[in-house]
Amino acid sequence: LRGGMDGLTAIPVIGDKNLKKKRKKLILEETLKLNSDFALHPKLHSFYDLWQNNQAAFVHATSIPYTGRSHFDGQNLMESGGNVPYQEKTGWLGRGMMAANHIGEGLALALPMPLLLRGVPLNDNYYPAKGSLPSKIVLESLSSAYRENGEINLQMVMDIIRKRPLSMMMSGRNGRNHRSLAKETAKLLSLNDGPSVAVFDLDGFDTHAAQGGVNGLHADHLEDVNDIVEELRKNLGNTFENTLILTLTEFGRTVKQNGGNGTEHGWGSAILMAGGLLKKAQVHTDWPGLKKKNLYEGRDLLSTLDARAVYLSAMAVCFHVEPELLRREVFWGDNLSDLTASLFKI
Question: Using CA atoms, how far apart are residues 343 and 346, in angstroms rounded to an integer?
Fold first, then answer.
């Protein structure tokens, strides 16, 4: 979720006078109550339905270790899992797939291939294009030429392209085709020989002005996330029981609204999760509070949990590998907590 998803809007804390004081124009009039401490933005209603069945959970007051305020640096570290911007050329998910021998089992709905998935060969990536598509004859001709010239890798790439459903290669109105993409992705994930990992790349969360509350810019983008999860849930069928969906973002947003009724770049945010591999419905957090003395630099929700620990634990469960292997092979031995027993079915 590029731009800095606002965890305090997605998962607002209930009854905190500090939030009400600092966000007078951004307070949600309506929420979906999760427990005595936290609620859910109403645009995330599919998550709420899943919550009732122990198939949705959230991690709050979390972020990657990056505490700067650059989208470019933050997104690079969000995907690489590193500690220094631009130092790593592969992504934590790609390295995790490689460590678990999940080669050629990734699908990214983005162009170019996201850094997140780099590091494992033969993953697939594309995004719906406007205009005409190459005909079946053209694809067959290219594929044949690669075979005749002994271009094994290119032949494998062409085979990947030919497997793409036509509906996933055509853009919807104004290029916003999230539901159709999610529907077709779910079908592919359900295939025995289909991808085991899919990545959706959504932007627009950088709401410096007119952020809105129940409705508005940020709410619209949360709705996109909700729509994708809803389509995945409906179309994965029984596969949903063996699925884990989670979000990542480069940082959160300031607790206090600005003069334009928006928020600035912050630190702590939240991770949204759904799927049958979740242990239970919960808001997992070491909540730091919103008093100024408890904020990062007096302005941001503190991150009390390294988000990479969540991603490490998620990969351990989904790829059936030991967390220690991933900690060593993917995150260079960084001191990341093993959250598998706390968050997921094992």
Answer: 9
| Range name among 156-165, 188-197, 248-257, 282-291 with the lowest pLDDT average | 156-165
Give the model confidence (pLDDT) of 270-287 as tens digits.
999 999 999 999 999 999
Strand partners, 58: 272, 283
- The tally of CA atoms less than 13 A away on the side-chain side of residue 268 is 26
Burial of residue 198, with CB atoms counted within 10 A of its CB: 0-12 exposed, 13-18 middle, 19 or more buried: buried
What is the Cα Rg of the chain in Å?
A: 20
| pLDDT band per the 50, 70, 90 thresholds, residue 123 | confident
What single letter denotes the amino acid at residue 1? L
What is the rounded end-to-end Cα distance, in angstroms, of the chain? 27
**Cβ–Cβ < 8 Å for 184, 168:** yes
pLDDT band at 174 (very low <50, low <70, confident <90, very high): very low
Which tokens sit at 310? 């969540």
- Give 305's strand partners: 62
Stated pTM of the model: 0.88
